[in-house]
């Protein structure tokens, strides 16, 4: 094995490890954003429905004032939760992270395919460079998408 072939093999092994680690982290973040988006949406809808019930229920005069005060407090909480969800854009970030996970999964399959075709042979340096360029494009695209989401929030 030539020195260049050995270097290409080491670089491919490094890329495999890097892609696998990124996939683990990006999946964790995607799932966290999905749960956060779902939780905030469910909370605002549930609290809004509860406010409607509290304001519409027929009770004695003393209890009516108390229920109106609770509904007012819940209305304020819904406003805060809605602002929180809008500011952090969990749903948008979740979708963007899902795209990145998909692209990284596709790259991992490409690496596996490349490895399967190698047998005992080292990879060609240009194949490793192509895989590295694709990984860098995915990372750059993910970062740029995240920046666009954050800039849109400020607009």
TrEMBL record:
Transmembrane segments: 37-60, 66-87
Name of the protein: DUF4231 domain-containing protein
Biological source species: Kitasatospora terrestris
InterPro entries linked to this entry: DUF4231
Alphabetic keyword roster: Membrane, Transmembrane, Transmembrane helix
Keyword Membrane: yes
């Amino acid at each position: 094995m030539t020195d260049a072939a050995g270097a290409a093999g080491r670089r491919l092994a490094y890329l495999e490890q890097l892609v696998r680690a990124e996939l683990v982290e990006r999946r964790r973040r995607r799932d966290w954003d999905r749960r956060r988006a779902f939780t905030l949406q469910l909370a605002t809808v549930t609290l809004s429905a509860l406010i409607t019930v509290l304001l519409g229920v027929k009770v004695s005069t003393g209890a009516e004032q108390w229920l109106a005060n609770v509904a007012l407090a819940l209305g304020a909480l819904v406003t805060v939760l809605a602002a929180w969800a809008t500011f952090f854009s969990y749903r948008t970030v979740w979708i963007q992270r899902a795209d990145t996970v998909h692209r990284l999964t596709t790259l991992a399959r490409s690496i596996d395919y490349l490895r399967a075709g190698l047998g005992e042979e080292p990879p060609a340096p240009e194949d490793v460079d192509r895989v590295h360029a694709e990984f860098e494009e995915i990372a750059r695209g993910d970062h740029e998408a995240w920046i666009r989401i954050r800039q849109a929030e400020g607009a």
